[in-house]
Amino acid sequence: MQDHVKIFEDYLKKHNLKLTRPRHVILAAVFANHSHFDVDALYDQIHQKYTDVSRATIYRTMPLLIEAGLIKRSLRSQARDHYEHIFGHKHHLHLICNKCGSIIEAESAAVETLLQNLAKRYNFTITECNIGARGLCEKCRE
Amino acid sequence: MQDHVKIFEDYLKKHNLKLTRPRHVILAAVFANHSHFDVDALYDQIHQKYTDVSRATIYRTMPLLIEAGLIKRSLRSQARDHYEHIFGHKHHLHLICNKCGSIIEAESAAVETLLQNLAKRYNFTITECNIGARGLCEKCRE
DNA sequence: TAGTAAATGAGAATCATTCTCAAAGTTTTC
DNA sequence: GAAAACTTTGAGAATGATTCTCATTTACTA
Ligand SMILES: [Mn+2]
Ligand SMILES: [Mn+2]
Ligand SMILES: [Zn+2]
Ligand SMILES: [Zn+2]
After folding, report:
1. How many beta-carbon pairs under 8 angstroms link A with B?
2. How near does any CA of chain A get to the CA of B30, in Å?
3. In this structure, which CATH number among 3.90.170.10, 3.40.190.10, 3.40.50.620, 3.30.1490.190 belongs to the domain A92-141?
4. In chain B, where are the structural domains located?
5. Nearest ligand, measured from the Cα of B91
6. For a pLDDT cut of 90, what percent of chain A falls above it?
7. Per residue in B97-115, pLDDT tens?
8. Please, are residues B91 and A101 in contact by the beta-carbon 8 Å criterion?
9. B73 beta partners
10. What is the pLDDT of residues A54-91, one digit of tens each?
11. What pLDDT is stored for residue B2 in this prediction?
C-alpha cells in the first residue's frame, strides 16, 4: 500500500512531525480531485465538511506536501499560487490560453530530456522542471 | 534607429498614450543594466536621480513595456514579480540554484522548437514560452 | 495659449500569505 | 492510562506587494 497517504505519513514520521487530523483532511482534499487548485478553493472544499480546519493550517501544510513530493506549485495566475498534485500523474507541461484561460496538459518527456541534456553542459543538476507556454487555443484563434 | 526608445514611443503613439517624462525615465532605467530586476530595485535605482517618479507609475508602466514587447515577466521569487528585458537579448531559459539562488541563462532555441512542435499537435499557437528548471549548480553540489 | 483628455504622486485600500500566541492535540514514558 | 514534553492548531492581527483613488499636473491638439 504505497499510496499518497502512506507517503505523507512516512514523510511526517521521518521528520518528527505529527500525524494530525487536519493534515489528513487536507491531504485527502488535495487528492479528491485531479485538477489544479489554489488555497482558497481548497479551503472552500474542506470547509464544507470540516469547519474547524483553518486557512493558516492549509497554508502551513502546502510546503509539507511539496517536500513530500506529492504536489508542486505549478502556476501563478493573477497573484495567487496554484498547485497540482503530481503523485500518480505523469510529468506534463502547460499550454495556457490567454483568451479563455483554459489549460492544456501535454506530455513533457521529450522536452524534459532535452532540458536535462542542456543542463548537463552547465554542470547543473535539475530537480524540478517547469515548462509552459502561453498563447491561443484552437477555439480562441478565429 | 530602431532602438528600444523608438519602439516604446511607437507603441505609445499607436495606442494614444502620452510620451511622458516618467515613462522615458523608467524605460531608460530598465535598459540601463542587463539583469533581472523587480519593481523595488528599479524604484531605488530611479529614485536616486529622479525623486519625483513614484512606485505607482513604475507599476503602471510595466504592463506597457510588456505589451510593447520590450520586457517580460520572468520569474517570481518569494512573492515578488521579477522582470527582464528581452529586446536585444536572445531567448533563453533559466536554471535556478535552490541553494545559492544563482541563475544560469542557457540557450533555449532547441527546447523552444520542440515545444512549438508539441503545441502544433494541440492546435495551440504559442506566443510566449516559459522554460526553466530548479536544482543545484556546480558549486553547490558538493 | 486654451481646451481636453490622460498621467501622475501620495497615500489609502486590497488581498494573498505569514505570523503570533494561547489553547488543544500527539507522542513518549512510566 | 495519565502526565510530561513538545508540536500543532485556529483566530485574527500583521505584513508586504500590488492596485486603486482622486486632486493636481502634464502632454497633445488646434
Ligand atoms: Mn497540470
Ligand atoms: Mn533571464
Ligand atoms: Zn482559449
Ligand atoms: Zn548554487
Report:
1. 115
2. 22
3. 3.30.1490.190
4. 3-85, 92-141
5. 2
6. 85
7. 988 888 999 999 999 999 9
8. no
9. B83
10. 999 999 999 999 999 999 998 877 788 999 999 999 99
11. 66
Q: Could you tell me the pTM of the whole model?
A: 0.88
Residue A45 CA to residue A50 CA, distance in Å, equals 9
Q: Do the domains B3-85 and B92-141 sit in the same CATH topology, yes or no? A: no
* Residue A22 pLDDT greater than 70, yes or no: yes
In this complex, the answer to whether residue A79 has its CB under 7 A from any atom of chain D, a nucleic strand, is: yes
Q: What DSSP state is assigned to residue B56?
A: H
Residue in B closest to A116 by C-alpha: B133
Are B42 and B30 within 8 A, CB to CB? yes
Q: What is the pLDDT of residue B79?
A: 83
Which residues of chain A does B114 touch, with a Cβ-Cβ cutoff of 8 Å? 110-111, 114
The domain made up of A3-85 has a fold known as Arc Repressor Mutant, subunit A (1.10.10)
Amino acid at B61: T
Determine the distance in angstroms separating the CA of A14 from the nearest CA of chain B, rounded to an integer. 22
HSE-CB of A65 using CA atoms within 13 angstroms = 27
Could you tell me which residues come within 8 angstroms of residue A57 by beta carbon, excluding any fewer than 6 positions away? Answer: A22, A23, A26
